[in-house]
Design goal:
Blueprint lengths: L13 E5 L2 E4 L2 E3 L3 E3 L4 E3 L15 H5 L3 E5 L9 H9 L3 E5 L1 H13 L4 E5 L3
Parallel strand pairs: 6-7, 6-8
Antiparallel strand pairs: 1-2, 2-3, 4-5, 4-8
Length: 122
């Protein structure tokens, strides 16, 4: 699906998504990504089942108010041990399928919120 950007000039915003990819400002990414309003970084994760606490080391560096974890085609919740680690960061964490994560991130980013999207494309 292609999304239409109407606001947020100068921000990194999702412009599309589909099976196995997301697009940020019309640049297609077929790997997992971490997106903040200022930067897009390829996220070196293998997939949802392989996520570890170390995969979320970016949280402290980017200092977001909220992290949106896009878990792919379907919403999937991390195991309790990983959920506890994420909760301990003190940052709000929302978990949703990747389509919903892209849309929610765009809304929060254009509102000026300190949001980060961690997106699994597979």
């Amino acid at each position: 699906m292609k999304m239409h950007l109407e606001q947020g000039v100068g921000l990194q915003l999702f412009s599309g998504y589909g099976t196995g990819f997301v697009a940020v400002n019309n640049v297609r990414y077929e790997k997992c990504v971490v997106v903040s309003p200022q930067v897009v970084v390829e996220w070196e994760v293998i997939g949802f089942d392989a996520l570890t606490a170390a995969d979320f080391g970016f949280i402290g560096q980017l200092q977001p108010e909220i992290v949106i974890l896009g878990t792919g085609v379907a919403q999937r919740f991390p195991p309790p041990a990983l959920a506890r680690v994420l909760a301990a960061t003190g940052v709000g964490v929302e978990i949703m399928d990747t389509r919903a994560a892209c849309r929610t991130y765009n809304i929060l980013a254009t509102e000026g919120r300190k949001v980060v999207a961690a997106i699994l494309t597979a």
